[in-house]
User: Fold these one by one.
Assistant:
Number 1:
Amino acid sequence: MHLCLPNTDIRTQRQNNLSQLFWQKDMVAHVLRSEGVTPQRGNMESWKEYRDMRGRSTGLISAEGDEWLKMRSVLRQLVMRPRDVTVFSPDVNAVVDDLVERVKTLRSQQDDRQTVLNINDLFFKYAMEGVATILYETRLGCLENKIPKMSQEYIAALHLMFSSFKTTMYAGAIPKWLRPIIPKPWKEFCSSWDGLFKFSQIHVDKRLSEIKKKMVKGEEIKGGLLTHMLVTREMNLEEIYANMTEMLLAGVDTTSFTLSWSTYLLARHPIIQQEIFEEVDRVLGGRVPTGEDVAHLPLIRGLVKETLRLFPVLPGNGRVTQDDLIIGGYFIPKGTQLALCHYSTSMDEENFPRPGEFRPDRWIRKDASDRVDNFGSIPFGYGIRSCIGRRIAELEMHLALTQLLQKFHIEVSAQTTDVRAKTHGLLCPGVPINLRFVDRK
């Protein structure tokens, strides 16, 4: 990135200010508020090259410009508002039921009958089952004792994708001249996308075939997100394949890591866990929660927000400036790629007092004038290019955490030491998290 500050000793200013340039809240706000109608993400040339090579469409994550705006306008009316996704509560709760049963099965395999090893593996399968239930309107069997072969293949493709995530997304494409010498990263990248697209195409085609049969018979066509897209055809079939693929990709590890950190933090802070349980018990009285109930569970919402503040799955965000900007005294020319580090803003004392402390209650408004600044913690992004699947992810997390707290007291296993985060493209636990799930009396 090239920066210049008129009438100033550039080297001195860089030494003094560069470390602050991308993490000060006001600077991040300035960049994001300066976005046009079609904000541009950072470098994703490797994604585009793969799609051009295979003749695939871009999806909402990888598309830019008018193409992106068209897709966004179609999807935002279906999944962007909390009241739109509450309709999925029964489907998600059915997956949560399987999650609870899977917890019981896994802990029964340990000597103490309470420990679940590597909790993220369980939450990964829950997140995949949950988001696929909404996207594909079908169950994949990820929480069964024996996972179906097709789902196993998708899981392998997804793991392969994230194993090469840093080199193929954030660091840009593997240079073409280097690929004959070091072919493995690019081959694995393409292979993982092949697997992801194949999985989506199978499920989309299956639902399309079911719809066509109903149309021939003159039967009423009912369904959810995918059915709507296939019936209205506001997108062509290739665009539907691409968006289903990218939304599933984006909705698995992101949700699973947040659930892993949330339960770990609850286990490390039993007093806070008890406070949240008491709120859940007071509001629900033991009944199964729905999406509508979440509005009356501020500590559950605060738990997810505080977890994402401490451990944002995407610790930074990319933008390409669409106009010349002056930020923090620097002249930023149009077309500059910026990295916005909201991990740093979320840990800034000026934005969040005692930022290292786990305090879900900091997100509860004390009165009508009280607010937590939006740009202090923006794990789902901001504005028109914010995460399209945010409300789906929040529904999955809120319902899962609520039911887990209803059923279990969560404790840290003796096999788990202090868990630190590491970056692997995404911010993830540095070691497996092992937790004890003790039945509530």
Number 2:
Amino acid sequence: MPTISRLAHTKAVLLFASTMTVMSGAIIAPALPGISRHFSEHPQVLIQLILTLPALMITLFSPLMGYLADRFGRKPLLLLMLSIYGLAGGAGFLIDSVELLLASRALMGVAVAGILSISTTLVGDYLEGSERVRFLGLQSSCMALGGVVFINLGGLLSDWSWRGPFLLYLTGVLLLPYAWAMLREPHSQAGAKAIHAEEPVKVDLGRTALAYFTGMLAMMLFYMFPAQLPFLLSEQGEISGLAIGIALSTAAFTASIVSFCYGYYKPFLSVMTIYVVGFVLAGAGFFVVGTTHSYTMAIIGAAISGLGLGAFMPNTTAWLMRITPQRVRGRVFGGFTATFFFGQFISPIAVAPAVVWLESLRNVYLGMGVLCCLLAIFMGILGKTYLRADSRL
């Protein structure tokens, strides 16, 4: 059993590792105009892929990373992924070819898939009960706040050079010795190879699939703000980049507060109740954004939706940890990471036809509000029927 001091260091490693996954896209977002000017001979879609390609690779490779973590151990794979993350991400500072830059971003996306899947799995391995619940809230909060911080850091460095933000990825290499010294392989996992021939571990496929689907929907809805809100605000008149940045940060900020407080309100609310309340608040925020023509009210709407969606990641993660045997946690959380980031990847793709069908982006926000209300009703019914046992968790 680790001492309190060692456990504190272990938690710090897991928080840093989790937060680094947000950096995969946030850091270079402000540098995209500079990258586009430097590679002006290439089509715009290739430049945009530099930002979005890691999310696709995370979706594709997270299940494999979860399997490898269960098969060969959490710590060795996490250390390898931190090395690849730092080297592949930092390589963008030196690369002068779009093709090579895309290749390095793809490789970094594979590393992010491993880092997030394994670090979340280790939370379940190391911590239990209320301590685990509080840490999951802190982890999600740090990830949400990290997006705000890293966008600004990337912006500062991109004012110096479009290559500047890529240097921040070297933090993966800097974290490596700290992680090597402080992390330990979970005892039951270390002996997994010896008991690998035992009877298969049973996974509750129905609940696991529902948790995956809920996480994907939450991320898809949350990314309605960074991906679509700037365009909606621009329809209301000329608006500065700073004002847009403040509006985008609002949802992330309120989400981080709700995530941070998860361990304090979870003892009083069940998993299903948190989902119902979360969808109601998210829907209310979408209705406000969709009906208002005021910048201030749009910010308030985004803040309300952030309050609702902010609890979804720690709530879903805690639920999965309760229903998943330790021996297969790596695979289960690899799948969760994949579906979670798939929601981010698919968000703008899903909105494009919805805008055509509903005739305006404002109507899409209203439609998402209706969808959230229906999902709240659906979760409420499940909590009274199929998932009655989970209403007591």
Number 3:
Amino acid sequence: MSFDLLVKNAKLPDGRERIDIACRDGRIVAVEPGISGEAGRVIEAGGRLVSPPFVDSHFHMDATLSLGLPRMNESGTLLEGIALWGELKPLLTVEAVVERALRYCDLAVSQGLLAIRSHVDVCDDRLTGVEALLEVREKVAPYIDLQLVAFPQDGLYRSPTAERNLVRALDMGVDVVGGIPHFERTMDDGARSVRALCELAAARGLMVDMHCDESDDPMSRHIETLACETQRLGLHGRVAGSHLTSMHSMDNYYVSKLLPLIAEAQVHAIANPLINITLQGRHDTYPKRRGQTRVPEMRKHGINVSFGHDCVMDPWYSMGSGDMLEVASMGLHVAQMMSRDEMRYAFECVTTHPARAMGLEGYGLAPGCNADFVLLQAADTIEAIRLRARRLAVVRRGKVIAQSDPATTRLSLEGRPEIVDPAAYAPGK
């Protein structure tokens, strides 16, 4: 039997060791020990971790790499970021957005990030970002699954042409219905926007992903309406609430009612640890709130939680590198998820969980799945997060599209080892 690619002696996220992965015609055809046969290329994993590709279920690609245009966010707040983006929007060109987005996609591939859901602002009547990212989606399709969300950044009703523009964006081919109910002028308008947007998605057979309750206000409770509308319209499994940071400030009694409603409606939750810890609690002195939503509690209720990167070098966040392991690391620290089981769960929050939220087909490490995966310089998923492990090989449809040498350091110390490999410090090694 012959294969296009054969990976030997891999460790899998579920703990299986000395596993081979055989690929043919862009698909995984076998995952088991001791696969024999000829292959166009053989990769010796050497007991290192092979994972399905990283997935970012919440990003803003129309704004990425725009840091400093037209100025910096001096306060570091969410609202100044929104205001700054409003200043930048009239200056955007399709060509510039495409160029920055493609550069970011290069970075993403180098990090083993092969699926991204990007919100794209529809409050610019020119729909510059929409036009640009539709072009980018087509260009990167051979190596990244890019899903686009029609996002009314300035409010569906607060911005006079947002509702019309959102429909225009969907007609142009944008995949998902977005919203931002907490940014409407009133709570009533916010709830009304949730109902209207969910009805639009139901009528068109689309998914929904709303920026929901990205606030420190415990009375921002649009996730309740989102769960209710999901239930009413039969959108189970097709709806995501992103951020949900107000839940960090809600009283426990109300949350004890809310979490079962979210679980019952099968609404996905998307936290954005790097951004939530940066933008929330800005009005606090001390004690300061972390702002990230209640991830461990959601896990106990069976809610599908994923972590998004959200921003990289843009009006809201001046850092970021496209590394979903950095996102997972921040997520588990902020949530104080420090048991071994919880840390493994954090890895799932940047792989299998966002893949489920996005409805990705053929995702995983099983026969029949797309031959998409990453070889990491790590012994297991916990070590991958601890080290932000080097991506030694990134595979898309059975072809290596990115590779790196292992990260090692040469020492010149008498009586000490010549080479230090950070992955050799895993427990038990």
